[in-house]
């Protein structure tokens, strides 16, 4: 039974945006008593994710996660958002999924007597994705399929296209949260969604060209160019788009590959074959998971030449973000190779940032860590790498860098010269 005098506070409110900090505080317990805090969320597929941490109340009978250390559980130490980023699936190898951003993600927080296991008090944090007044518009324009997010207020706004990872369908959380920052964002699907091909044999870059034109021509979008944000397989697509298509000003590639992967990519009369994987370099973890980190050839090798995107043709600004413990492929090698190609062609319009101990899926802040899961191209569960705390810190840091990058390079063109040209090429 809950104790009436015990209070669980979620500050500043039980209603927050998904990417914002929640201050969890318990008051009214017995001084110096053991308190377990538990968190639980059910994703849009019905998968349950849980985390817990043990605390000791102070002399006033309070537990403040922003200042008190966790003594054990899913994490240790002072971790203000530990109950969120350490959420782990009850069934292994499942990634947190959010399909419908019109509804919030509900995270239940409980304070439990650390000695008896009695639930003392509970509260639910509603983690929203869209600010009030934002428009979410399904897009069926020619071949283009996706969802457009338009922020409230007087436009036009800078435009960004959000490309997600290999696996088909559509992902909207990052796009909606970016739109909250004052951008028109198109979350673009490219297969396995509505009437798009379910199992394409080739990807057509002209489809993405149509999407760029659609977004640039939209009356709510301020031109002349747009931004791209991508991750994993779509990082390669973003590099290809930046290499061949006009109208792209700023491109974010998160844990992408400089070479084409999985499917051939066609643009007009040009076909770029996928990098040839070497199954001899596939290994297994101690728990039996497949590790494909070294399955692709080095991008500088002769066998890779035909599959490498010609990013020396690009005229946009790049932000390459790479996790050092990415086991989907070697993202750092790819980012360094891309930077070297640009530099060798006299192009310094790029930034590279790398994150030690971070894994493959660098997403929005406080997204639950995904160390392993099903890989659509491999057809089985694989290891994605990373350590939970370091990965969480990387997500938070990268989100800030993405905001700064787009603010700088998608700004009003008449003022763009006023922005400092910081060539922080961290190689």
Automatic annotation (TrEMBL):
Which Pfam family, just one, is annotated for this protein?
A: BAAT_C
The Acyl-CoA thioester hydrolase/bile acid-CoA amino acid N-acetyltransferase domain, residue ranges: 21-141
GO-annotated molecular function = fatty acyl-CoA hydrolase activity
SUPFAM superfamilies xrefs: alpha/beta-Hydrolases
Catalytic center residues: 232, 326, 360
The BAAT/Acyl-CoA thioester hydrolase C-terminal domain, residue ranges? 204-411
Q: Per its UniProt record, what InterPro entries does this chain match?
A: AB_hydrolase_fold, Acyl-CoA_thioEstase_long-chain, BAAT_C, Thio_Ohase/aa_AcTrfase, Thio_Ohase/BAAT_N
A Gene Ontology biological process noted in the UniProt record is: acyl-CoA metabolic process
The family note in this entry says: Belongs to the C/M/P thioester hydrolase family.
Q: Return the protein name.
A: BAAT/Acyl-CoA thioester hydrolase C-terminal domain-containing protein
Q: Which organism is it from?
A: Takifugu bimaculatus
